[in-house]
Input
Amino acid sequence: MNRRLACALVFAATALAFLPGLRNGFVSWDDRVLLVQNPYFRGLGWPQIRWAFAHFQTGKYMPLAWLSFELDYALWGMNPAGYHLSSLLLHAAAAALFFLVALRLTSSREAPRRGAPVGAVFAALFFSLHPLRVESVSWATERADPLAAVFYLAAVLLYLRRRLGLSCAAFALSLLAKATGITLPAVLLLLDVYPLRRWRWGEPGWQKLVAEKVPFAAVSLIFACAGLAGQATTRALVPLARFGAAERLAQACYGPVFYLAKTLWPSNLSPLYVLSPRLTPAPFVLSGLFMVLLSGLLIARRRETPWALAAWCFYLVALLPVIGLVKLGLAIASDRYTYLASFGPALLAGLGAQMLADKGPRPRWLWSAALAAGLCGLTAATVAQIGTWRDSVVFWRHAVAVDPDCYVCHKNLGDALAAQGLEEESREHLVAGALLLAKARHDLGVWYYDAGRYAEAAQRFSEALDAAPGVPETENNLGLALQRLGRPAEAAARFEAAVRAKPDFAPALVNWGAALAALGRREQARDRFRRALALEPGNLQAAVGLELVESAWRAPGR
Output
């Protein structure tokens, strides 16, 4: 297959698959704040250019992406079709560049050149036509993903051609679009080991390879510091005290397995995967075990399948900036985070297609038809996913359908419905969102309480009551947390509120009695314990509490 023809085929197939996205509008998921209501990017004059380079909008430093939006405004005004067209063309260009990179990487001794174009085409289309790419392309605000990928892949291609200065410049441009590619220096070292084989374990010469990466590492460090500084200016950066090291490690283990599962079976894709406090530790533990076992297996078989280990290492390294070690917001995962990391699985898919083209059993047309059918299936799923970004109501309806417990999705759907004048349905979702938010914060408070982190538990219970006041269970649990913190008077007030909201709430009566006893108000404590026993005659805590209070009452000197 002619290389230029194959490159044009990849570009055209990608563009055609995403063409339905031109019918989509802006959605109320950053588009409104960053584009529709933002006057600062509108134009290509010096004030707009200066603003693009001088501001951290929503904590992100992406001046090159803003320049592309400014060009869009000059060409299309605020017509969303023009913005989607630009993202579509950038994604198609990234697919074409990935084809060229894949062609170079698969044309090695382990991958004969005769099959390389087939494998490279399949790898590029597996990457570009996958439904996980929809969020980065159909979400106008996420223009930065395909734009950064174009320069990222250009940097890799130039490095493969040993144009180190130009490669480093392209890398800097990629980070000016979005800083998710900051791990490229480590990726280039991986390429040096395999498939370039510029260095083998135990051999001298690694110092030269590392020295080549120093300019790349310097650029990466600058943008990493800028990114952290920008995120620190917003509330998106979650402090370590609120989301600890153990939780971050658990999310870091969960993410790669979650994305791998979505890559293999891309169903129920959502714009927001919320970290639920009701999620048990099992998925995180199993994900960690899976990563350890798979890594161990690939290391053990590194001589037989070095390409698999190299792709797995690239996948993990590319995910590092977005894996949760630096915690941003409430999401546990996002489809857009797979944009660069998906090059690894796509290369593996391409190598599999290449091996079938080279050594697969006959008839070859059957394997070709199977591969084509797989790509058609991905395209159909992608087109369907693009349709969920049509407008804000369609978008958030889909999100609620995927995750009915997502309080943010209900709230945003309620706002979108209200904007269209559908007040009754809007109210239903706004109320559902408030109740789910309260429940999520309550459940997180329970988690902190069980972990012995009572101050954080009290804060979460208070936030739950702000979202849904007067819930008796939350009032009771807040009282328990305050009692643990040595604040019995405040605890007693919360138990009283719980009983006022639910008069037959025996556990709250018992807790109220204990708080009153701690305050020395034994007559009132005895009354609460008796009321609890009247409701639940077999309540052991109430009986013990009553006996202790009455024993103290009967003691000499009382």
